[in-house]
């Protein structure tokens, strides 16, 4: 499996967003959330870059961020930063579902065995 460049860029974008939130508004929760989610996504990208990819951490984190930032985008109507992170999260979610289906197929029913 090649390196998960999209996952690493996604993680860096989320972490940078937290840093920008802190720099702009001195928001410590924004800094903590951005760095925490960025670290989780970075580790998830590392897991996806292994010979046998393991997309579940990045998939779960992307799902959570898509929901959270989608709700914030809906409330505020502002594309930056919530809308951008929501769209990136949905793209990462789709990518990870495809990886999950390719490498970790769902167990099939064994009727009659």
TrEMBL record:
Keyword vocabulary terms for this entry: Membrane, Transmembrane, Transmembrane helix
Lineage top rank: taxon: Eukaryota
Entry's transmembrane regions: 26-44, 79-98
GO BP, one annotated term: regulation of heme biosynthetic process
Localization: Membrane
Database matches in InterPro entries: TMEM14, TMEM14_sf
Record GO cellular component, one term: mitochondrial membrane
Keyword Lipid biosynthesis listed: no
Gene3D superfamilies (UniProt xref): Transmembrane protein 14-like
Pfam short name (any one): Tmemb_14
Family: Belongs to the TMEM14 family.
Protein name: Transmembrane protein 14 homolog
